[in-house]
């Protein structure tokens, strides 16, 4: 294996400027020196030395449909030549049709009337959802959320994200959350099946409503102090943890009993990442609010939004001006979003993703059999996890995964005579989980290639 890679003279000039002029607050360098990239296509990105890297995280699942997807790129180019800009107080066809598409789909799947509200990204849409649920609950600012959950880094979103480090310097701005254990079966109590552990977690949550002395419920008035439960149906930054299929159905029963809304954060898992438009669809429940972003525009435009039940968002209860963003529902973003929906409706996109995910997961399971440091693998569609542990197959081993990530970015692995790098993303409660979010358009040979590159990294990690 090669030594630490040295930046080229041209790159070093740029890195020196970045060190002087760029805020470090909006970025994290996972390797040193950081790579500077120059182009992308499909499942690959190339750096300034024209070294190719297979990307298995696709901009944190924002580029679900592959880099430089020709069809989505062309939709953007066409819109630029017709109506590239319009103030958000004026209407345009794309906003109306995209809202209709999302709302009609929700009606067909959940049997609920609802409306769509746009904003410029995931965190901002979380903020809008907080306004909706606070408004519906007469201003309640307490929320339930999960340990391991991630909802963004704006002030409201960080208040319902379980990582204290995101709000340590800033405190709370209205919202506060009670963080509830998520059914993370691999690290849960032994002796329970996955489904039993899911039921156990729901039962522990339901205990909060047994008496007024559990701190959340007034049985005399049948009122809860908490407005909503924010869930990622499959935890994203928390490590792509997939709960048992009975979990949300049982949880929603408790929430409905006590008038607590369920908000499904689909920012990472939406738009077919798990083989369905929304990951909550796998669990046979009706969400009250859905928050989306990222892959709606395949990363070409910062557009996100919410869908909410009619009772929560109709103009009588959530009137004009309740929230606003200058670039919300902009015509470039809505044009790409519409084309994405058309593209994914022309084939059985969900079945395609599930088949590829099954194939990829089987490859990971084969690696797990051969490398004891892989403690757990799991997946739903093309949301996959690979937990790196110590020799016992359980103790979290962040250092080894950090080493693998750095080795992957050297761009010096050989497969069939081709020199390649591998881009991985790190997540999990202990930062020891490879969270895999490849392009949904990834080919089976590219899946095989990714598995071969992962194998090379595992060999390096276990023989260093």
**CATH-level-2 architecture of the largest domain:** 3-Layer(aba) Sandwich
CATH superfamily of the largest domain: Type I PLP-dependent aspartate aminotransferase-like (Major domain)
Largest sheet: 7 strands, mixed
CATH topology term of the largest domain: Aspartate Aminotransferase, domain 2
Structural class, please?
Answer: alpha/beta
Please indicate the count of domains: 2
Mean pLDDT: 96
Shape: globular
User: Into which percent range does the helicity of residues fall?
Assistant: 25-40%
Which blocks of ≥5 consecutive residues have pLDDT under 50?
none
Determine the N-to-C terminus distance: 10 Å
The first-level CATH class name of the largest domain: Alpha Beta
How many β-strand stretches? 18
Strand percentage, roughly? Answer: 15-25%
Task: Give the strand order, joined by hyphens, for the main sheet.
Answer: 4-12-11-10-9-5-6
Radius of gyration: 22 Å
Q: Can you count the helices?
A: 13
What do you see in this structure?
With 464 residues, this protein is an alpha/beta fold. The chain folds into two domains: 176 residues, Aspartate Aminotransferase, domain 1, CATH 3.90.1150; 271 residues, Type I PLP-dependent aspartate aminotransferase-like (Major domain) (Aspartate Aminotransferase, domain 2). Helix content is 35%, strand content 18%. The protein is built from 13 helices and 18 strands. The strands form four sheets. Strands 4-12-11-10-9-5-6 form a seven-stranded mixed beta sheet, sandwiched between helices. Strands 1-2-3-16-15 form a five-stranded mixed beta sheet. Strands 13-14-18-17 form a four-stranded antiparallel beta sheet. It starts with 8 loop residues before the first helix and ends with a helix. The model has no long low-confidence stretch (mean pLDDT 96).
